[in-house]
TrEMBL record:
Residues 31-116 form the DUF4429 domain. This is DUF4429 domain-containing protein. InterPro entries: DUF4429 (IPR027860). It holds the Pfam family DUF4429.
């Protein structure tokens, strides 16, 4: 691979946010979320040190469980085509798509959640159905000929454009 191609790949995939939790670290890249596990707490909760990549397009939601007075909080990543487990702290601690955090880390994880939700929304917009321009042209012609009302024309046009 030449230098220009390597530079282009690095420019496309960049670290946007990086947040360290109790049993792992979450890294938001331009196209995916990466969960890295290392250390004693990762071995206690996950039985292993590991790294997991989740493409943003594969995510359906992100949920934060607030930390309590005596409990930690967690951030959980829900996959579009995955089985969702229940939301107890004990199960969350062993879930590979979940990272625990303490009350001091909450603000950073809340910011991370917001950034990921924006990426999920943007990826869903990009993956919507293509626009049928021929049908739009026929609709405009029907409106010009007086066959449909302005409100029908606008509402149908919005549906065709996915708005």
């Amino acid at each position: 691979m030449n230098q220009k191609a390597a530079d282009a790949n690095q420019a496309v995939i960049q670290v946007e946010m990086q947040v360290r939790g109790i049993n792992g670290q979450v890294i938001l890249l331009s196209d995916r979320v990466q969960i890295k596990r290392a250390g004693a707490m990762a071995r206690l909760t996950q039985s292993r040190n590991s790294e997991k990549d989740i493409p943003v397009a594969a995510l359906s939601a992100v949920r934060i469980q607030l930390p309590g007075l005596l409990t930690n909080g967690y951030i959980r990543f829900y996959l579009s085509h995955g089985k969702q487990s229940d939301d107890t702290l004990v199960r969350a601690a062993s879930d590979e798509n979940t990272v625990l955090f303490n009350p001091r880390q909450f603000t950073k994880f809340a910011n991370l959640k917001t950034a990921i939700e924006k990426k999920i929304a943007a990826s869903q917009v990009l993956t919507r159905a293509p626009v049928d321009f021929e049908q739009l042209d026929r609709l405009a012609e029907q409106y010009k000929q007086g066959l449909i009302s302005r409100s029908e024309w606008i509402s149908t046009k919005k549906k065709l454009l996915g708005l």
